[in-house]
Design goal:
The protein is an alpha/beta fold. It contains 5 helices and 7 strands; from the N terminus they run H-E-E-E-H-E-H-E-H-E-E-H.
Length: 166
Amino acid sequence: MKFIRAIMTVLFFLVPSLTVSAANVPNLYSVRFPNVDNETVSLSEYKGKVVLLNFWATWCPPCVKEMPSMQRMRDHFSGQPFEIIAINTGENATSVSSFLLELDTELTFPILLDLKSSSYKAFNIRGLPMSLLFDKKGNLVKSIIGGKEWDHPAAITLVNEILEEN
């Protein structure tokens, strides 16, 4: 059974996937962005949690498509040291807030704004959506480019394994 789960995880995250060197990624806990209410949020608030950092935009169809599955994943891990943080790149609070109101699924995970798209260079973002998965110590575990069904069993298994490791 573990072998089958391992294969599912590899297949789910291998294509399309890329490797971002940890040297190319800033210290997770030093990153700060405003939220849609213009309050600055420091990712240091998430120390001790597994963090899925998702970079997205309202004009990106795969980004929009994966949002409900990210919410389902967050709901699945409710009460555990896990958080999803979605960083919108290049759009203002009004645009993002309007978009969120139009979604069929209410998103309860933090939505932050990278108004100047500085994350593209800082995190070596190669396209949208792109997600970076960090362990409880803030170490980069996995980088994934492209939209995913985040509540897929392979994604759940991967996060469970990272939760259990630390």
